[in-house]
Design brief:
The protein has 729 residues and is an alpha+beta fold. Among the domains are: 135 residues, no CATH class; 115 residues, Serine Threonine Protein Phosphatase 5, Tetratricopeptide repeat; 79 residues, Immunoglobulin-like, CATH 2.60.40; 173 residues, no CATH class. Helix content is 29%, strand content 38%. The protein has a 16-stranded antiparallel β-barrel with strand order 8-9-10-11-12-13-14-15-16-18-19-20-21-25-26-27. A four-stranded antiparallel sheet has the order 3-2-5-6. Strands 4-1-7 form a three-stranded mixed sheet, with no helix packed on it. Strand 13 and strand 14 form a beta hairpin. Helix 9 packs parallel to helix 11. It is elongated.
């Protein structure tokens, strides 16, 4: 009688309160009412009608949005429990449990009221499916799709083993254990549930939960783990109960969630998840689902116009996917389907943005045109000016793209070592055209590219082909690329038929991109390059010294050209490098996006067959200064040792046949030991009506310390670039 009075009081208070105040405000009172009503099986069995009358008031107090879905689910669990225990109506109890699971797929029974009749009705309700989640069909162990079904029927004559009450329960338990041993997780879960229907045992339910988890039925596993956690202690299986509680907590974090947001002005809105209607009050909140693919469909009216929406989404562990319903006329919805597919497949915010374009879906193709001008100057009197044009077309819905670029290098130099080798200041122009494209075929993206570099005394041409594949819902993307290059090194003003050295180059690049979480990408890569041919410079003459002078010069890097000419011998042999070179680089890049900034870091370790070993560390911190302005500082550190045949002073030995010089010799300071430090900054401004114009500027200060070079001790370099690009639909 006391609980009936409390229920009536709660109902009257709820009715008198304004709706805005009542929203989800009755959870505490209703929960206390349920706890006071469902004390034990004996009191429920003695007076089930009184309990049901009290629960009717609780249900009325949760009408509309007055209670949260979890508390409404508890009310239905309570009603089903009373129907199973007190009224002996398993069918009606099952229906109440189905409604509970529809409100909250993770709902469980009351810990103190989990008798055989209650448990059986609850398990039957779970077989109907967690309707409110729109749970997709899960793959069976044999590769097919569908809800797991028991394949063997109980023969009816199995003798139960010791400790078992029924032969049927024991038979299906043995089948579940056998399916677990053969890793048929779906069958294991189905057999275990069949065993539970015949005989409710904690150990069987733990087996069911374990197999459900590995079959991808995480919501079902979460429910069973919670039941074991609630009942295991009372049956003397405290350790199993603790393990189940830990498993349930782990799954609660891993279970994917879908958030469906409705349009602001929609009327008559009906939303379905895998053909199951989602209640209006659940829109905007998290809906727990098993991992996999499902379809969100909606229809309604906006400003009096009928509209529809459909989107297929994939959700994986730990993911929380938001779907914004955008009602379009049926014809427009079909036209927009390719864009929605593109959005669903996008792996990064930039890819998602390209799907919808700057101002919505204006076309199937996106065009990017850009112009860049960069310049370089250093303390060794080297200057470079590089204008470049780039263009790109991308069909984000068709899965293909093409790009082309053309740049010109204008280089002039009068470096100290150039002058010392009797070469005057020179200026030359280099032309670099390039073209490429890619095509996505299912989860595989195939790319191809080619380019050339043309100088007065050097011509290079090459091509590449590669492929990448998306795995594990695009969270793992391995890629493999092969490149081939053919170069001819010559002399300016001389025909290549008279003087031309061919150089061939094969390269292999393998990488794997991991989407660690929604904001973090990690990409390790391995590159191998195999070169064959004489890459020695035909203009580079190497100073030679007698043995005693060479020993003195070893400790005197950074000499003037005049001093070197004073000490050197009269012979001037040309540079000679090995005729083959194998290069290997191991790199790793990680990028993490915060709310309004991104940090990106890369480490590269290099070694080659000439004995050169190097390490390069590069980092950028990119932050959003404003909505349209992005800026970043830049830091780079490079350290390397010299090649095996590197000498600050090469010795020419006097023999009976004259002077003999080292077979391998070089004056290329880039092959010697050095340390380089780069400090810089950059910014990008998005502007225009649709923010499809971008203006970027970067500046880097580069300091290089040559640790063992004949002429040059250090170099100060200054690099700047500006880029203007526009994206068109």
């Amino acid at each position: 009688m006391r609980f009936r009075f409390l229920a009536i009081l709660v109902t009257l208070l709820v009715a008198a309160a304004p709706l805005s105040v009542r929203a989800a405000s009755n959870d505490k009172e209703v929960t206390e009412l349920l706890t006071g009503t469902l004390t034990d099986e004996a009191s429920i069995a003695a007076n089930p009608d009184a309990a049901l009358e009290t629960l009717a008031f609780a249900k009325q107090a949760c009408e509309g949005a007055s209670c949260s879905p979890k508390v409404r689910a508890k009310v239905y669990i309570a009603i089903g429990t009373v129907l199973a225990i007190g009224k002996k109506k398993p069918g009606e109890a099952k229906e109440a449990f189905v409604l509970a699971l529809k409100e909250d797929p993770t709902a469980t029974l009351f810990p103190n009221l989990q008798g055989a009749d209650v448990q059986k009705a609850f398990d039957e309700a779970r077989k109907v499916g967690n309707a409110s989640t729109g749970t997709a069909q899960v793959p069976k162990a044999d590769g097919g799709a569908g809800t797991p079904k028991v394949r063997k029927e109980y023969p009816g004559n199995v003798k139960p083993a010791r400790g078992w009450k029924t032969g049927e329960g024991y038979f299906y338990y043995q089948e579940a254990v056998s399916a677990e041993g053969s890793r048929d997780w779906a069958d294991c879960a189905a057999y275990a549930q069949a065993s539970l229907t015949a005989e409710n045992r904690v150990t069987t339910r733990y087996l069911a939960a374990s197999c459900e988890e590995r079959a991808g039925l995480w919501i079902e596993a979460y429910g069973d783990y919670n039941i074991v956690a609630d009942t295991g202690q009372a049956t003397g299986l405290g350790n199993v109960a603790r393990q189940a509680r830990a498993k349930a907590e782990e799954l609660s974090q891993k279970i994917p969630k879908i958030i469906i947001r409705k349009p602001a002005k929609a009327t008559g809105l009906v939303v379905k998840l895998n053909n199951v209607v989602i209640e209006n009050e659940k829109l905007g909140g998290e809906i727990w689902v098993n991992p996999g693919q499902r379809t969100v469909f909606a229809k309604g009216r906006v400003d009096g116009v009928d509209g529809e929406f459909e989107q297929v989404v994939d959700v994986a562990e730990f993911e929380s996917v938001s779907v914004d319903i955008k009602l379009l006329p049926p014809g427009a919805r079909l036209k927009d389907a390719t864009v929605l597919k593109c959005m669903a497949e996008a792996k990064t915010p930039d890819e998602f943005a390209r799907c919808v374009g700057s101002g919505g879906n204006k076309g199937n193709l996106n065009y990017t045109v850009g112009f860049e001008l960069s310049g370089y100057h250093d303390s060794n009197f080297t200057d470079v000016v590089t204008p470049a044009l780039v263009g790109k077309v991308e069909s984000v819905t068709g899965g293909w793209g093409a790009n082309a670029s053309f740049l010109v290098d204008v280089v002039t130099t009068a470096s100290a070592d150039i002058i010392a080798n009797a070469s005057p200041r020179w200026t030359e122009v280099r032309y670099v055209p390039a073209i490429g494209g890619h095509k996505k075929i299912g989860d595989i993206d195939v790319s191809i590219g080619g380019g050339a570099s043309i100088e007065p005394d050097y011509v290079s041409a090459g091509g590449s082909i590669g492929a990448s594949i998306d795995l594990r819902q695009k969270t793992v993307t391995p890629a493999l690329n092969y490149g081939f290059g053919y170069d001819i090194s010559g002399r300016a003003g001389t025909s290549y038929s008279v003087f031309g050295r061919p150089i061939t180059r094969h390269s292999v690049d393998a990488s794997i991109t991991f989407v660690v979480d929604k904001a973090t990408f990690f990409t390790p890569s391995l590159t191998a390059v195999f070169e064959n041919g004489d890459s020695s410079k035909p203009y580079r003459y190497i100073p030679m010294f007698s043995e005693d002078l060479a020993q003195q010069i070893q400790g005197l890097p950074g000499l003037t050209p005049e001093a070197v000419n004073t000490y050197r011998l009269g012979i001037r042999p040309l540079e000679q490098l090995p005729l083959s070179r194998q290069r290997y680089a191991l790199a790793a890049r990680i990028a993490h996006r915060f709310s309004s900034s991104t940090i990106r870091a890369e480490e590269r370790v290099y070694a080659d067959s000439w004995g050169l070993i190097a390490s390069t560390t590069d980092a950028r911190f990119i932050f959003d200064a404003t909505k349209d302005l992005r800026a970043w500082p830049h830091l780079r550190l490079h350290v390397q040792d010299g090649v095996d045949f590197w000498k600050i002073a090469y010795i020419a030995e006097q023999t009976s046949k004259g002077l003999v010089v080292p077979f391998y010799r070089t004056g290329d300071r880039e092959l010697g030991p050095m340390v380089g430090l780069t400090l810089g900054a950059g910014a990008r401004l998005a502007f225009g009506k649709e923010k499809n114009w971008g203006l970027s500027a970067t500046f880097d200060f580069v300091y290089t310390r040559f640790l063992d070079h004949l002429y040059i001790l250090q170099r100060f370099g200054y690099f700047g670039a500006t880029n203007l690009a526009v994206e068109l639909d």
